[in-house]
């Protein structure tokens, strides 16, 4: 196993920072590695705490009386210089549990009312997003959305279009559009299963 010698914080931003890791690999070669993180300080990095507290939530939500549409957002991302389809998502605030964060983020991004499902913890525990680049982890929260779409609570920095996609639209999106990978995998599940949340009843 590699050995970490020193970690230095290189930036001081509100939402994400860059850290430099000085280490030695298992092959006894020097390693200079860079990590993007939501952590505010070196002491809060997951490589220091050894914990996997979720940075954010991703919301997989069905909509409509027949529960046959999925709630997506089409968002402009500066990393791509264009739009990408994603699930509603956001950071968990201090003192907020996953379900509370999901309800808040769904409303802020879409105007919809979100009712979370309570599922086996294995389905909603935080998993890592892009571990070669960042220590960020996100938990998935499942549930049902209702109400009217609104942009009233969106931040000025956000450019978001809310999409209530049926299976035909999901097929088109997967074939033709840019899609976040965590969203894409769940959309494939949405296409396959008559009851998309049936897998949540399985024992792990």
UniProtKB/TrEMBL annotation:
<comment type="similarity">
    <text>Belongs to the Nudix hydrolase family.</text>
</comment>
<feature type="domain" description="Nudix hydrolase">
    <location>
        <begin position="50"/>
        <end position="187"/>
    </location>
</feature>
<dbReference type="InterPro" id="IPR000086">
    <property type="entry name" value="NUDIX_hydrolase_dom"/>
</dbReference>
<dbReference type="InterPro" id="IPR020476">
    <property type="entry name" value="Nudix_hydrolase"/>
</dbReference>
<dbReference type="GO" id="GO:0047631">
    <property type="term" value="F:ADP-ribose diphosphatase activity"/>
</dbReference>
<dbReference type="InterPro" id="IPR020084">
    <property type="entry name" value="NUDIX_hydrolase_CS"/>
</dbReference>
<protein>
    <submittedName>
        <fullName>ADP-ribose pyrophosphatase</fullName>
        <ecNumber>3.6.1.13</ecNumber>
    </submittedName>
</protein>
<dbReference type="InterPro" id="IPR015797">
    <property type="entry name" value="NUDIX_hydrolase-like_dom_sf"/>
</dbReference>
<keyword id="KW-0378">Hydrolase</keyword>
<dbReference type="Pfam" id="PF00293">
    <property type="entry name" value="NUDIX"/>
</dbReference>
């Amino acid at each position: 196993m590699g050995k970490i010698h020193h970690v230095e914080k290189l930036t001081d931003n509100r939402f994400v920072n860059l850290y430099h890791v000085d280490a030695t690999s298992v092959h006894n070669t020097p390693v200079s590695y860079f990590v993007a993180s939501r952590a505010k300080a070196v002491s809060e990095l997951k490589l220091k705490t050894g914990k996997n507290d979720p940075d954010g939530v991703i919301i997989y939500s069905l909509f409509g009386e027949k529960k046959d549409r999925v709630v997506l957002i089409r968002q402009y991302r500066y990393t791509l210089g264009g739009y990408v389809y994603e699930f509603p998502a956001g950071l968990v605030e201090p003192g907020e549990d996953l379900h509370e964060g999901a309800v808040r983020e769904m409303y802020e991004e879409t105007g919809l009312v979100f009712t979370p499902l309570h599922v086996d913890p294995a389905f909603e525990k935080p998993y890592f997003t892009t571990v070669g680049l960042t220590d960020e982890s996100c938990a998935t929260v499942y549930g049902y959305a209702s109400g009217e779409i609104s942009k009233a609570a969106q931040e000025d920095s956000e450019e978001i279009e809310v999409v209530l996609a049926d299976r035909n639209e999901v097929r088109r999106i997967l074939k033709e559009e840019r899609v976040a990978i965590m969203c894409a995998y769940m959309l494939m599940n949405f296409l396959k299963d008559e009851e998309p949340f049936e897998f949540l009843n399985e024992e792990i």
